[in-house]
Amino acid sequence: MFTKPIHTKILYLVILIAAVLLPFYIPDRYMFQIVIMSFLLAIATVSMNLIIGYTGQASLAHGAFFGIGAYGVAIMTKAGISFWLALPLSAVITAFAGLLIGALSLRTRGHYFAIVTLCFGVILWIVAGNWIELTGGHNGIYGIPRPSPITIPLLGEITFNTQTAQFYLALAFLLLTLFVLHRVVYSVLGLTFMAVRNNEALADAVGVNTFATKLLSFVVSTFIAGMAGGIYVSIIGVVGPSDASYMVTFNLLIFLILGGIATLAGAVIGAFAIPFLMEIMQFLGDFRMLIFGLLLVVVIIYFPQGFVGGLRLLNQKIAARRQSKL
Amino acid sequence: MELFLQQVFNGIMFGSTYAIVALGLTLVMGILNIPNFAHGHLYMLGGYVTFFFINNIGLGYWPALLLSVIVLGLVGMAMERIVYRPLKDAPHINAFIAAIGALLFLESLALVVWGPQGLRINNPYPQIYNVMGITIGLQRLLVIIGTAILILMLHLFLKKTLMGTTIEAVAQNREGAMLNGINVNRVSGITFFISSATAAVAASFLSPIFMLSPAMGAILGMKAFIIVILGGMGSIPGAILGGYILGLIEALGGGYISAEYKDVFAFGALIIILSIKPTGIFGKKEG
Amino acid sequence: MLSIQNLTKHFSGLVAVQDLSFDVTQGQILAIIGPNGAGKSTAFNLITGTLPPSAGKVLIDNQDITGMKPYRIVTKGVSRTFQTTSLFDQLRVIDNLMIGYKWRTRLGFWNTLLHTPKWKAYNTEALTRAMETLKFLGLAEKAEQFIPTLSQEEQKRLAIGIGIVSKPRLLLLDEPTSGLIQEETDRITQLIHRIRDEQGITVIIIEHKMQMIMGLADRIVVLNYGSKIAEGTPDEIKTNQAVIEAYLGGETNA
Question: B and C: touch, per 3+ CB pairs < 8 A?
Answer without folding.
Answer: no
